[in-house]
Design goal:
The chain contains twelve helices and 13 strands. The protein is of the alpha/beta class and 366 residues long. The chain has two domains: 132 residues, Alpha-Beta Complex (Aspartate Aminotransferase, domain 1), CATH 3.90.1150.10; 223 residues, Type I PLP-dependent aspartate aminotransferase-like (Major domain) (Aspartate Aminotransferase, domain 2, 3-Layer(aba) Sandwich), CATH 3.40.640.10. Bound molecules: 4'-deoxy-4'-aminopyridoxal-5'-phosphate.
Length: 366
């Protein structure tokens, strides 16, 4: 008898590699590898999590009703057109699952979020990679890849791992040039880190157009990564299709309650955004001052910096040396970023420590 055989395309998937949280010997390190909020979550969200521990014997609300209503009120949206997920990863997978399969093409950018590749392949679709422009999203390169087989396009804005931002005009231009049967997924996991007044118009586009899905998360600025809560917004028919295949109880009661509390915690969100802007600028200046060692920063609109290593010390070497000094950042050769390290903005002490470690590593190399 032969062993069970996975579908043809499954073994072609490169498993997701998560950011490291411990050193090789299991020792605790400063984790700046997963773009989490160094300030934690809001006190109100933490309180909701504790309160929810009293109702673990009951299934959660399968429709995340209260949470969808809170999201709708916050962003002036229709709650019936919101879908909640086990993290926004879940929503991204639901989109690929509902709208693509064998023979279909799924486009994403060269330095894009790793989950797009997995989501595309998982349902048998063919991933198609569009070249970048200076590490950022190149609308013309994406449009050049669109064929009659294109079904889904994934774009993160701001983008992970590069931190680059595509303007409202660029996103609108991309959408306007797409066939109406192509689903444009605008992944806004880092939307809250954009500057005041900076808006790519994603939610407006999803409100008015039948082929745009916006995804958001509570894992980043809201500091609830462990609870796995994300959401999507699109036309009712898109959401209806995704709801048919969504696992019924995909967001826990604690997660739903904590997310509602997080949405109301405006002071915490503002404090987190300001902390990030301040220390991102600081780290960017510190790294730029090391330019004589061949390091440079890609300007970031998110809660991390992509640092390029073009001198004596390679990104791979710097990654290992930082780990030795107790700092886990992210080297992403699997995504073609052999020469860069993505560094999450940490607390003040963590960010200062990271810069100092980097200075020492580059100085030691001469
Ligand atoms: N999109 C992007 C661009 C991300 O960087 C991440 C997290 N790394 C996610 C989606 C998924 O986040 P979550 O599933 O925690 O919502």
């Amino acid at each position: 008898m032969s062993a069970p055989k996975p579908k043809d395309w499954i073994m072609g998937i490169a498993p997701y590699v998560p950011g490291k949280s411990t050193g090789a010997d299991g020792r605790k390190i400063v984790k700046l590898s997963a773009n989490e909020n160094p300030l934690g979550c809001s006190p109100a969200a933490a309180q909701s999590l504790n309160a929810a521990s009293g109702s673990v014997d009951r299934y959660p609300d399968p429709g995340s009703t209260k949470l969808r209503e809170a999201i709708a009120a916050k962003h002036d949206l229709d709650p019936a057109r919101i879908i909640c997920g086990t993290g926004s990863d879940d929503v991204l997978h639901l989109a690929a699952n509902a709208f693509s399969g064998p023979g279909d093409e799924v486009i994403y950018v060269k330095y894009g979020f790793a989950v797009y590749d997995i989501a595309a392949r998982r349902y048998g679709g063919t991933p198609v990679i569009a070249d970048d422009k200076d590490y950022g999203t190149d609308v013309d390169a994406i449009l050049a890849k669109v064929t009659g087989n294109t079904r889904v396009i994934f774009i993160a804005n701001p983008n992970n791992p590069t931190g680059t931002f595509s303007s409202r005009e660029e996103i609108a231009r991309l959408h306007a040039a797409l066939p109406s049967n192509v689903l444009l997924v605008l992944d806004a996991a880092y939307a809250e880190y954009m500057d005041e007044g900076q808006d790519d118009g994603a939610l407006e586009l999803a409100s008015s157009e039948a082929n745009v899905l916006v995804t958001r998360t509570f894992s980043k600025i809201h500091g609830l990564a462990a609870e796995r809560i994300g959401w999507g917004y699109a036309d009712a028919d898109i959401i209806g299709a995704m709801n048919r295949i969504r696992l019924p109880f995909n967001v826990t009661t604690a997660g739903q309650e904590a997310a509602v509390a997080a949405l109301a915690s405006e002071d915490f969100v503002t404090r987190s955004r300001e902390h990030n802007a301040k220390w991102r600028q600081w780290l960017s200046d510190e790294v730029s001052a090391l330019g004589n060692h061949g390091v440079k920063v890609v300007p970031s609109h998110a809660n991390f910096l992509l640092v390029l290593f073009e001198g004596k010390v390679t990104a791979e070497q710097a990654n290992a040396a930082l780990m030795d000094k107790g700092y886990a950042v992210r080297w992403l050769p699997g995504q073609g970023l052999v020469n860069g390290l993505r560094m999450t903005i940490g607390t003040e002490a963590e960010t200062r420590g990271l810069a100092q470690a980097l200075r020492e590593i580059l100085a030691d190399a001469g």
